[in-house]
Model the fold of this input.
Amino acid sequence: MILLDTCALLWLDSDRDLLSTESLKHLEHYANAIAVSPISFMEIGIKAGKGRIVLPMSLEKWTDKICDKYSLTVLPITRNIAVKASTLPEIHRDPFDRIIIATAALNRLKIVTADKVFAEYGEIKVIW
Done:
């Protein structure tokens, strides 16, 4: 199973040309084992509310559609993930990304992301 960062989740459905060749290979290989954190849906909703991105439909309908279309597994944000995210080294300050990083670390998942800062956390493997 692989975990998508928020940017990869958006690009998966809207603009696959923004995904790297390596990312696309992994997405094809793990087609039935792709996970997301619900924090990505929150981040997308906040960005859409501020006009920074435009969704083709309501956030609720979009999340249902994308989860169904790609058979995404939505992993829970557990107490352990919250604790891990709060105790990660201060490499990445974005709380959304820290939750995604903690989710990957605790579930031993590779993360698909264009964010180069993720790779500075040695306990996770970044696909890009």
In short: DSSP finds six helices and five strands in the chain. The mean pLDDT is 96. The domain at 2-127 is CATH 3.40.50.1010 (Rossmann fold).
